[in-house]
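Re-run with default settings, no changes from the original entry. Doing this only to confirm the output is reproducible before filing.
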Amino acid sequence: MKVVMPCIPKRTRRPSRGRLGKGVVYEAVCPRSFSGKPGPLCAADLLRAMVNSVAEGAIAVSTSGDLLFYNDAARRMLGMGFVHHSSRQTSRRVGLYRPDGRTPWADKDLPLLRAAQGEKLDRVEMIVRNRRHPKGIVLSVNARPIRDAKRRLLGGIATLRDITPRKEVERELLESRLRLRGLLARIESAREEEQLRIAREIHDELGQTLTALKFDASLLARKLKDGKPPRALVSHVRSMLQLIDSGIHSVQTISAELRPAALEDVGLLDAICLQVKEFQNRTGIASVVSRRTNDIQLPDEFSGGVFRIVQEALTNVARHSGASRVRVTMTGGNGSFRVLIHDNGRGVTARQVAAPTSLGLLGMRERALAMDGELRINGKVGGGTSVVLTIPATG
């Protein structure tokens, strides 16, 4: 490949009163005069100095792929391999790879050569790994075609920006986020296990105690009924029975909140159906549940996570939406399980969804991510809100 360097014109022009105007501002003569003293800076050297002073790399080629120009930054980023090569060996000689770091760029797909054919490309990432950069650096490339005043295509030019530090920060942030997500998932799993243990202890120990106490109180009430006890004593025993019934109901409610028994008794799908029915009875909001699948295989921790997301979504409907109807649809197949909760309320806004104070929505998203799933929340003002949970599943 031939390298065409800018030529120095033989004829000179004087500056236009020190201002940049049409034509050449500085005299286009050699840096030194015939007397040997430094002369006025020539236009070509000025242009070269200006381009070499920028941090971004710049490289230009003709429509046939011949190298026209490059600056110092481009040489530092690419090494010298791009100077001495044929137009069909650019990627191999320079060591240009796709963002995965393993797949070499095909020469015909290189942004610079595509720009030389008239294309415009922005923020194309490539990895340079060669003798100069054995560990590799990441470049962001913008490429544009070069045209003359008559719009005739002359070649292409590309600017190169080293974004390696930024990519390293992004990688560290991603790793930190993944570690944090793993920690949150472990905490959530431990909390579910602890809630299950507490729920069982409350149900087994306190529930049995209250049941036995109710039996004794009922027996006492029957004995008092057979005799002629004071009316106040009978009233006191009845009040005691009511308190015991209330305690038993509280135990059942607390146990269900800690760990829904329906998950273990009837499975996830039926548990969601029961939860929707209970939601309608408790709130008065017309609720419909639709099942388009009957057999979904999920790990226990995933079943609990799905149920909690549905539970939180219904709670948000009752608290914030002002809806009169809600529909829950469960579908499965093609290796995934999907739950849609849609209401006809006022509709959540994008700002509300993204707000850092929306801890309930944040918790729902984290639960979905912990299951390798996706949670999408969309709202339309006056048109209700849709919450869509999708997770991998079999069945």
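The domain at 54-162 is CATH 3.30.450.20 (Beta-Lactamase). The chain is about 45% helix and 20% strand.
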